């Protein structure tokens, strides 16, 4: 929102100390991102963007002037000699090539810059400030110039010089006549009322103790009545609370007055014509969008009958060519303004080309309406149309503002477009909003703010914000004004208003007092933090993603027929359902990071949401997802260029999973076939089972799934663990294992088994046979070669035998070792290499 201080002063007295005003507004929740000065000196205590610093219009060098005569240049066809009255009694001649003044004309008001003026050089790129010096233009001396908007730093228009309004004074310093400071304010959704000059003025008045002076429209209606000239209806009061139509006859299409053009330009609004400019001016002033239709076109479309304007949902197959010339196919989600033949405007977003106001327009139908903010927001997003009107509608506007804005526009049409306003109006108002009353207690303010704000100050602040208040015992009864749709939460919202205006900076810093309630041990949270610590020590970094996604994004990871929790009003098309997979989000993170690096190790802990039949709320399940890919280690001294990279593989991921389980002291985990999931590589994956409960899966991502996430042509290692299942097998307590006092004895065993037999099955049998003396089993070799029969493989294990109370004898070790070999032979039909033929 761009706020012209010169314009703002129409409604409230504004202090000349711009820096102080900026600070006060920012503290109150209206963050001023920048201040742009037009012709004024920049205060030394205020920082502005370097690229937006323009020329200062020196009081004694840049003035308003009036054209006395325009003659042809004797030596150049494109140049003219202009004689000017600059208010000193002595005419001033300048040479100009401006195309918007012609030989023989006189009386125009222009802007004169004398020698020594510092302006933007109209012939330099990029913009450069240059001092105006005397020169000769094709033999004629020239020590001054008439100025364009570009040279003055107003905007980038090179087409001609500025022509001021006819009643502009002569010989006045331009700084006084049109110098301005424009605040660029970031208006947050809860401050949407400040998307208008009047709304902004109310805030300034409350913050500074000044009084707001609002315009009081005066419209002289003609003898002709609007009755029988147009009909208005609304199909759904929830989609449109109010629609009002007025008719203005005999408008004269032309330029809007100079002061209005400047205000719009300073506010970032394009100047078009007096009719369009007036609707935009009222929009910026009041915050209520308006739209002007060519009434004669509506009559023609109605076949000479009374035009019937309807606010309704679009019908299937309907199309509308909007003002930007784009043909748009409409859906039932779109709210439209329609007449007897079909849609003539996208309600609250953009008008239609067929009924727009043109240079030939004589009669105007003025629309002032209120539309549902959700509907406008959806339509804006659907067609990617974001303008001043849709922005305000999408944040919510009270229907009571319609009347004032329409009257204000009619007043300006009479003054600056020569229009005759028909008496009365036609409207549909099916859904008036009820008056909202809130009871506020003094002790509520103390409880929320921690200080006693004097009751007189509370009264002053609320009245300054135009709340109607009645003092009652220990508090107030407050009536919320129509323009404050943001006040919905009762007393808390009112207390926030008191705090904002009173000043957050005035609230004293105090330590918390009182006894804290006893805290119960939150075991799941503790275990989550333990998991984070373990994963961080394993070199992984945590990511946090939205819980919202799309079905298409998760489709390779979730069953195709799985129902989702869908949002009624999604914030975007990319976030329309609640996620059922944490892994999908982390894979997206990995794909993004791999654009700039070759190694990522990421994890996320979060919730998934699965709808339950017959239940209002979905089942929330806490999950852990891991994604690893790339190098095992960075380039080092013996390989500084990274020519011999060792890539992460399945066993690196398995090590991370085992470290996680070890940190939880879980019972022994079994790693079996992951046949339950189809998103993992069938030969490089595993299922995690603890005490007959499946807690997760890990392995290499299936190549087709990897391609879906733009991760093709590389090994992507992933894991997905149900933390609730995992935490259920984590022991409440575990015994401390002391450091062994006696040495361990190591023995190796190599077995020849079927190629289909998993290492997990062999390790399980070894541990079962080894008993208490066997402390560790470690696979250290896998061999398939010419000496190994077809369909077989050789696995070699290192076994550690150890007793807690003695050094084991050779006889004890051999006995335990033989028991293991015998079990492998009989249970797994394995051959012991080196012993069995």
UniProtKB/TrEMBL annotation:
Location of this chain's protein in the cell: Cytoplasm
Keywords: Aminoacyl-tRNA synthetase, ATP-binding, Cytoplasm, Ligase, Magnesium, Metal-binding, Nucleotide-binding, Protein biosynthesis, RNA-binding, tRNA-binding
GO terms assigned for molecular function: ATP binding; magnesium ion binding; phenylalanine-tRNA ligase activity; tRNA binding
Gene3D superfamilies per UniProt: 3.30.56.10, Bira Bifunctional Protein, Domain 2 (3.30.930.10), Ferrodoxin-fold anticodon-binding domain (3.30.70.380), Nucleic acid-binding proteins (2.40.50.140), Phenylalanyl-trna Synthetase, Chain B, domain 3 (3.50.40.10)
Cofactor: Mg(2+)
Residues annotated as binding Mg(2+): 486, 493, 496-497
All copies of domain B5, residue ranges: 433-509
One GO BP: phenylalanyl-tRNA aminoacylation
Alphabetical list of InterPro entries matching this protein: aa-tRNA-synth_II/BPL/LPL, B3/B4_tRNA-bd, DNA-bd_dom_put_sf, Fdx_antiC-bd, Fdx_antiC-bd_sf, NA-bd_OB-fold, Phe-tRNA-ligase_IIc_bsu, Phe-tRNA-ligase_IIc_bsu_bact
Record field: catalytic activity: tRNA(Phe) + L-phenylalanine + ATP = L-phenylalanyl-tRNA(Phe) + AMP + diphosphate + H(+)
Any one annotated GO CC term: phenylalanine-tRNA ligase complex
Lineage: superkingdom: Bacteria
Subunit details: Tetramer of two alpha and two beta subunits.
Protein name per UniProt: Phenylalanine--tRNA ligase beta subunit
């Amino acid at each position: 929102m761009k706020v012209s201080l010169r314009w703002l002063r129409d409604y409230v007295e504004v202090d000349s100390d711009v820096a102080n005003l900026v600070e006060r507004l920012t503290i109150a929740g209206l963050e001023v991102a920048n201040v742009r000065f037009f012709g004024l000196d920049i205060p030394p205590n205020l920082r502005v963007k370097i690229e937006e610093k323009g020329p200062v219009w020196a009081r004694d060098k840049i003035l308003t002037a009036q054209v006395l005569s325009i003659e042809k240049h004797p030596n150049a066809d494109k140049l003219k000699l202009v004689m000017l009255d600059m208010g000193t009694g002595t005419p001033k001649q300048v040479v100009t090539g401006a195309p918007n003044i012609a030989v023989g004309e006189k009386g125009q008001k222009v802007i004169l810059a004398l020698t020594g003026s510092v302006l933007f050089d109209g012939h330099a790129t990029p913009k450069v400030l240059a001092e105006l010096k005397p020169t000769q233009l094709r033999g004629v001396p020239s020590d001054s110039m008439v100025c364009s908007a570009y040279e003055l730093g107003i905007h980038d228009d090179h087409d001609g010089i500025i022509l001021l309004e006819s009643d502009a004074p002569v010989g006045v310093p331009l700084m006084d006549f049109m110098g301005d400071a424009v605040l660029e304010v970031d208006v947050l959704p809860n401050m949407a009322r400040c998307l208008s000059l009047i709304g902004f003025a109310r805030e300034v008045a409350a913050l500074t103790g000044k009084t707001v002076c609002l315009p009081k429209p005066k419209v002289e209606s003609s003898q002709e009545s609007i009755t029988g000239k147009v009909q208005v209806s609304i199909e759904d009061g929830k989609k449109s609370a109010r629609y009002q139509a007025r008719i203005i006859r005999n408008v004269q299409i032309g330029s809007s007055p100079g002061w209005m053009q400047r205000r719009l330009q300073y506010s970032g609004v394009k100047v078009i014509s007096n009719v369009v400019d007036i609707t935009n001016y009222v929009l910026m002033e009041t915050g209520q969008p308006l739209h002007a239709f060519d009434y004669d076109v509506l009559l023609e479309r109605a076949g000479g009958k009374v035009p019937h304007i309807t606010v309704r949902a679009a019908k299937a197959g309907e199309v509308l060519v909007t003002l930007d010339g784009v043909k748009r196919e409409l859906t039932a989600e779109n709210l439209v303004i329609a007449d007897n033949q079909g849609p003539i405007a996208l309600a609250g977003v953009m008008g239609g080309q067929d009924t727009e106001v043109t240079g030939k327009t004589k009669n105007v139908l003025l629309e002032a309406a209120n539309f549902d903010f959700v509907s406008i927001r959806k339509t804006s997003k659907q067609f990617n149309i974001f303008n001043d009107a849709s922005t305000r509608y999408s944040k919510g506007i009270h229907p009571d503002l319609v009347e004032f804005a329409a009257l204000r526009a009619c007043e300006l049409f009479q003054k600056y477009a020569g229009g005759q306003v028909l008496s009365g109006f036609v409207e549909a108002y099916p859904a008036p909003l009820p008056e909202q009353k809130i009871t506020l207690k003094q002790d509520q303010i103390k409880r929320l703010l921690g200080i006693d704000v004097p009751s007189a100050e509370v009264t002053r602040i609320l009245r300054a914000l135009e709340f109607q208040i009645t003092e009652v015992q220990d508090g107030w009864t407050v009536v919320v004004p129509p323009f404050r749709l943001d006040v919905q939460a009762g007393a808390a919202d009112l207390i926030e208003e008191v705090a904002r205006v009173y000043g957050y900076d005035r609230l004293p810093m105090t330590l918390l007092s009182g006894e804290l309630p006893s805290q119960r041990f939150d075991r799941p949270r503790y275990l989550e933090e333990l998991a984070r610590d373990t994963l961080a020590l394993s070199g992984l970094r945590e990511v946090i993603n939205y819980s919202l996604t799309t079905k298409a994004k998760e489709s390779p990871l979730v069953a195709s027929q799985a129902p989702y929790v869908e949002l009624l009003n999604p914030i975007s098309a990319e976030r329309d359902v609640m996620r059922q997979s944490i892994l999908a989000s982390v894979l997206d993170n990995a794909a993004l990071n791999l654009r700039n690096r070759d190694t990522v190790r990421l994890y996320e802990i979060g919730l998934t949401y699965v709808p339950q039949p017959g239940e209002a709320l979905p089942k929330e399940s806490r999950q852990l997802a891991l994604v690893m890919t790339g190098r095992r280690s960075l380039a080092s001294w013996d390989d500084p260029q990274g020519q011999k990279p060792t890539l992460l593989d399945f066993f690196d991921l398995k090590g991370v999973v085992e470290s996680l389980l070890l940190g939880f002291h879980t019972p022994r985990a079994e790693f079996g076939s992951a046949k339950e999931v189809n998103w993992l590589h069938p030969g490089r994956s595993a299922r995690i089972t603890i005490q007959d409960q499946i807690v997760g899966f890990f392995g290499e991502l299936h190549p087709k799934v990897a391609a879906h996430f733009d991760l093709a042509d590389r090994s992507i290692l992933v894991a997905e663990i149900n933390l609730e299942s995992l935490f259920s097998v984590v022991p409440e307590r575990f015994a401390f294992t002391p450091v062994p006092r006696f040495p361990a004895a190591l023995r190796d065993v190599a077995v020849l088994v079927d190629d289909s037999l998993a290492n997990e099955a062999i390790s399980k049998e070894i541990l079962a046979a080894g008993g208490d003396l066997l402390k560790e089993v470690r696979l250290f070799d896998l061999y398939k070669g010419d000496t190994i029969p077809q369909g077989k493989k050789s696995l070699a294990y290192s076994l550690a035998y150890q007793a807690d109370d003695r050094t084991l004898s050779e006889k004890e070790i051999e006995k335990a070792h033989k028991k293991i070999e015998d079990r492998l032979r009989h249970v797994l039909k394995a051959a012991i290499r080196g012993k069995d033929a």
